[in-house]
C-alpha cells in the first residue's frame, strides 16, 4: 500500500488568495496549434505547417484525473506541452489556475510551470549520474531552496512513494517501476497543482504499471492530473477520458 502523498503545509488546493473563487486548475479555450507557422520563412519556403490542434477546449478541476486518448499524432503531447507552457499555441487560451500562459513573458511562463506543474514522462528522464534523492531535489535547486530543505523534502517524498530504502541509489540501480516512482516524486517536489503524465506506464510491465497508476491516483486527490495514453488500463484510472482525433476533441467524456 502506498503512503498518502501529502501536500506541503500552507499550500492548500483552494486556500490561496489568488484562487479564492474556485477555478479549473487547467483550462484550454479554442486552442489551435500549427507547428512551423511561427516563422514566415517556413511558410514562404519549402517548410510545411502541421496543424496539431484544431480548436481544443477542455477543463481539468482540482482532484480530477482526465485522460487524453487518441492515436499517435492526434495531438496528446502537444496539449500537454501547451499546458506545461513549453509551447505557446498559435491561437487560443491556456489557463493555469486562471492565468493565461500566453500573456506571460517567457521567464514568467517558466516560473508558472515550475510553481504549478509537475511532469512525468514515459521514459522517466532521470539524470543517470545523480542519486534518486538528488534527482528528486533537482527542481528545488532551480527554485533556490537551501540544500538541507531540499534533502529533507526529497527524502520525505521518496519515502512516501515507497522508496525510503533507495534514496542513494542511482537510476541505473533501480527497476523501471522504481525509476518512474522517483520521477513522480520529482514531479511532486515543488508541490504542483497540476500533474501531467505522457504515457506514464509505456515502459512498464502490467503489474508495475498498475502500481504506478495507483500512485498517480493517490497523488490526484488534491491535484489536477492530465494523463495522455493509448493504453486502456492506464486510462481506466481517469475520472473522465477525452478522445482526440486529428487535433480535435471527438468526445469530451462528460
Ligand atoms: P500524439 O502525442 O497524440 O502522438 P503529437 O501532439 O505528438 O500527437 O502530434 C500531433 C501532430 O503534430 C502530429 O501530426 C505530429 O507529427 C505533429 N508534430 C508534433 N511535434 C511536432 C514538431 N515539433 N514539429 C512539427 N510537427 C510536429
UniProtKB/TrEMBL annotation:
Superkingdom of source: Archaea
InterPro entries cross-referenced by the UniProt entry: AAA+_ATPase (IPR003593), ABC_transporter-like_ATP-bd (IPR003439), ABC_transporter-like_CS (IPR017871), ABC_transpr_LolD-like (IPR015854), MacB-like_ATP-bd (IPR017911), P-loop_NTPase (IPR027417)
Molecular function GO labels: ATP binding; ATP hydrolysis activity; transmembrane transporter activity
All residue ranges annotated as the ABC transporter domain in the record: 26-254
Entry GO CC: membrane protein complex; plasma membrane
Stretches for region Disordered: 1-22
Protein name, entry field: ABC-type antimicrobial peptide transport system,ATPase component
Source species: Natrarchaeobaculum sulfurireducens
Taxonomic lineage from the root: Archaea, Methanobacteriati, Methanobacteriota, Stenosarchaea group, Halobacteria
